[in-house]
Specification:
four-stranded mixed beta sheet; elongated; about 200 residues
Length: about 200
């Protein structure tokens, strides 16, 4: 059997092997997102792009159906339990022309540390952003300054929360990935942010 597509869990497909057959099942993510996969066996193809769409291959044949969610959960409980925790993202917002967090964003660190504690080897990606006030060059620097300021906050709590320094990556995107599209030189608080992804 050959299969192409998204095999990342949970919004993708899982290859489940049983005896002389192999089964591919598309599992929905917690938010309902569905991945997809094309399965080929014995010259036959199946496109699986709906929740619990399934293809079973064995002895050169391919059978396509919709798997029962309860049965999948029971029959493949150990494989499903081994799935990694999906990444989780948090947004922190900044004062204008500054790497200082707005007061509402300072309290989010407790949630982030709680999420990190659930993972055996957490990786943290911190990406800074700006609005369109200032030059692109200035905003590139400011966005990286924001990411680094947040990373420093993590570094100050390494021992307390068991975070290793090599688990944190920072990047600055400047004004390239606006949440709210604006004209040049228009201030927009929702674009002055850092996105923290814990995975």
């Amino acid at each position: 059997m050959r299969a192409w597509g998204t095999f990342a869990l949970p919004a993708g497909a899982i290859l489940l092997a049983a005896c002389s057959t192999e089964q591919v099942v598309v599992l929905p993510a917690a938010d309902g997102h569905i991945g997809g996969v094309v399965v080929e066996s014995g010259g036959q193809k199946a496109v699986l792009d709906k929740p619990y769409a399934s293809a079973e291959a064995g002895s050169g044949s391919l059978r396509q159906e919709t798997a029962d969610a309860t049965k999948v959960g029971k029959d493949y409980a150990s494989a499903l339990a081994a799935r990694p925790i999906p990444p989780k993202s948090y947004m922190l917002y900044f004062e204008n022309d500054s790497d200082e967090l707005v007061p509402e964003s300072r309290g989010v660190f407790g949630e982030i540390f709680a999420e990190i504690a659930q993972r055996k080897a957490a990786e943290i990606v911190i990406t800074g952003h700006t609005d369109r006030v200032g030059t692109p060059e200035y905003n590139d620097k400011l966005s990286l300054d924001r990411a680094n300021a947040v990373a420093q906050r993590f570094r100050d709590d390494f021992e307390k929360h068991g975070i290793k320094s090599d688990a944190i990556t920072t990047a600055g995107r400047g004004e390239r990935d606006l949440l709210v599209q604006t004209a040049d030189q228009v201030p927009e608080p929702r674009n002055r942010r850092v996105e923290i992804t814990v995975r």
